[in-house]
Design goal:
Blueprint (H helix, E strand, L loop, with lengths): L6 H21 L32 H21 L8 H6 L4 E2 L2 E13 L2 E14 L5 E10 L19 E3 L3 E8 L2 E8 L4 E8 L3 E8 L3 H8 L4 H5 L4 H4 L1
Antiparallel strand pairs: 1-2, 2-3, 3-4, 4-9, 5-6, 6-7, 7-8, 8-9
Length: about 240
């Protein structure tokens, strides 16, 4: 789009081109008698009034400012959108079992934490077993995380939810799957018998069970000790009351 300030200049150029076009036929193909000079006729371009420069629209700056305010308002509205209340981290801790088959709970803790305006509630526990003849002991860690404080963006804490995964090698495997109708992810490494199991509950809770010197079946058994139906029913701090 041409700026309004360039239009007068274009009109002037158009006038000059018209003048050249008018002069050209007068000199081309015309033979003058010898010895006779004929005064050159002065051809003047037709008078054409040059339009005054188009005034700059006084509302251009106002429109720009209005657009800026609209974008700013949309950003503020998105930032101020109310997310579901986080479940009380103490409720999450209460769902972690006191023991697992053959393992004692060594520690348990919970907290609400956040940064940059985002927050999560989480609880985790560690379970340990007796050492075997080789000095190895089973260890399982269970963690519950409520991601409602990040707008339910599960991909922020579980990247596997963004793609289908199914890989296998001599070292182990990893795959996205389903457990009792819920999205889940399994990963197992033969070295150290290390496994990881993650499950999404109600599109906001991430349940993680991982361990060393264990089988995937043992991790699934540990997951079965967590009441996922009760976790799914949590509605935030009000539920604790």
């Amino acid at each position: 789009m041409l700026h309004s300030g360039t239009r007068p200049a274009l009109r002037v150029i158009a006038v000059v081109l018209a003048a050249i076009a008018a002069i050209a036929p007068a000199g081309c193909g015309r033979e003058e008698p010898k010895g006779q000079k004929e005064p050159v006729e002065q051809v003047e371009p037709p008078a054409e009034p040059v339009a005054a420069p188009a005034p700059i629209k006084p509302n251009a700056a106002a429109q720009l400012e209005a657009a800026r305010k609209t974008a700013s308002g949309a950003a503020e509205a998105a930032a101020g959108a109310k997310s579901p209340e986080l479940a009380d981290h103490r409720q999450l801790k209460g769902l972690l079992p006191e023991s697992l088959p053959g393992l004692k709970r060594a520690s348990v803790k919970s907290e609400k934490t956040g940064a940059l305006g985002f927050s999560v509630s989480l609880a985790e526990a560690e379970y340990e077993g007796q050492e075997d003849a080789d000095g190895n002991a089973k260890r399982i860690e269970a963690r519950l995380t409520d991601t409602a404080g990040v707008g339910g963006l599960m991909g922020a804490t579980a990247a596997w939810t963004l793609a289908e995964i199914d890989r296998e090698s001599d070292e182990g495997y990893e795959k996205s799957t389903t457990l009792n109708g819920r999205r889940a992810f399994e990963k197992y490494q033969k070295e150290g018998k290390h496994g990881e199991l993650q499950v999404i509950v109600a599109d906001r809770f991430l349940v993680e069970v991982s361990g060393d010197q264990v089988t995937m079946e043992e991790l699934k058994a540990a997951l079965g000790k967590i009441d996922l139906a009760k976790l799914e029913a949590l509605k935030g701090p009000a539920a604790a009351k």
